[in-house]
Each structure stands twice: as C-alpha cells, then as structure tokens.
Amino acid sequence: MRFELTTLTLARLCSTPELRPHPCSPAMRARAAPREGAYVLRKAKSNAIGHFAMIKPAPKDLFDRLDALGLAHETHTHEPIFTVEEGAHLKAQWPGGHSKNLFLKDKKGTLVLISALDTTQVPLKHLHREIGTGRLSFGKAELMEEVLGVSPGSVTIFALMHEQTQHLDHVILDAALLAHNPVHFHPLENNATTAISPDDLMTFVRDCGFEPRIMDFEGISTPPRD
C-alpha cells in the first residue's frame, strides 16, 4: 500500500528542523500534491452530501422549533423502539395515527422519505413507477445519518429540520396517516414519541422547505412485471 504526504504533513516537514528533509525538494512537493482525480472525487462527494458537515438537531431543537411556530405537541418517553412491532404495546395508550418512516434510494442516488400509517402496506416493488424514480431500496445507515441526521430506528418526518435533508428528492406522506388526529412520530430519537395534529405537521414540513406529496398507497394497483 502506498501512502502519500498530505499538504499539512509536508508543511510540518518543511518547518520543523528535526523532521525537515534536506532539502525539501520539488519532487517531494510533487508527491505531496493530491492527484487530480482524487481531488475531484472528494470535492464532488463533499458538494453532494457534505459528510457530517452540519450539526445534527436534538429533540430539544425540534421542540423549540415547534414552539416557535406555535404548533401544539405532546411527547411521551419510553424505552428505545426499533420496529413497529416493538411499539405495539404503547399504541393503545396514545390514540391517533402511529407512523412508520422509510428512507429509500434508487441506484442513481435519488433519495425518498416516506411517512406512512404503521398498518399501511407501502408497495416498494412498484412505487418507483408512481413517483418517477428507479427501483427503490432502503438507504444504508451511514447515508441515513448524513442526510437525515438520525440513526436506524429513529427515522422520522421531524428529521426534515436537518439542513442536509435538502438533498431529498421526494417527501411522501400517507393519506391514511393524515386521516388520524393526532399523528405520532419519534422526535429524532427512538426513546420517545411526539404527537402533533396533521395540519400542524404540514405547517412544520413546509417550514422546512418541502411540499410533500400525499399518496393513497392502498389505491396503487400492482402493474405488470417489467
């Protein structure tokens, strides 16, 4: 494996007497310069996502934003919940629509966030036909954390307040979820659940810069195979 000197390392070599090669030759400088291809790749990746460049919002930041918008909300804490099934015993205590949230992507990098009623069957195999993307699959945890600022098990519509979500191409809300009042989501962490009215949720989503697409997933018929 070949290691190349970074510009910072080269500067230290040239300025620290006990480490300085004699002389600091042009050849050494040429080796330290980044290869053009590698620089373009890093620059493109930085512009595309910006690896952990933004500060991730915390639940308190979410509550402060909801309060600033004048939106009523109520939060209950509980043990961490990672799946819809794990939270089944809590739903009877809190009436309304409980959500499941999916972070999806296609092979071209199109990013999709879906918030659906927990009982809705989201037709992932042919949803791409409806929204004009390639075939969709679940986004990896690393990408999820970069774009949404949350970890697996904590995906939520409230993550839209994270600045990196501007890289999302589609934000989709289930019509069946919005038929309930209130609706429930994790407040950026999966050890709590926050209730909010559908109208106030829409106000929050739009304040984050998104106009969500409302879909009736139950009404999507299965098309013929490709």
Report what the structure shows.
By secondary structure, the chain is of the alpha/beta class. The chain folds into two domains: 7-48, no CATH class; 59-219, YbaK/aminoacyl-tRNA synthetase-associated domain (YbaK protein), CATH 3.90.960. It has nine helices and eight strands. It has helices at residues 7-15, 26-32, 36-48, 59-68, 88-91, 127-131, 141-148, 175-178, 198-207, and strands spanning 74-77, 97-105, 111-117, 137-138, 170-174, 183-185, 192-196, 213-215. Strands 1, 2, 3, 4, 5, 6, 7 and 8 form an eight-stranded mixed beta sheet that branches. The longest helix is centred in the first third of the chain and has 13 residues, at 36-48. It is globular, with a radius of gyration of 23 Å. The two termini are 44 Å apart. Residues 1-53 have low confidence and may be disordered.
Quick structural gist:
β6 and β7 (192-196) form a beta hairpin.
Explain the layout of strands and helices.
Elements: H1 7-15, H2 26-32, H3 36-48, H4 59-68, E1 74-77, H5 88-91, E2 97-105, E3 111-117, H6 127-131, E4 137-138, H7 141-148, E5 170-174, H8 175-178, E6 183-185, E7 192-196, H9 198-207, E8 213-215
Parallel strand pairs: 2-6, 3-5, 5-8
Antiparallel strand pairs: 1-7, 2-3, 2-4, 6-7
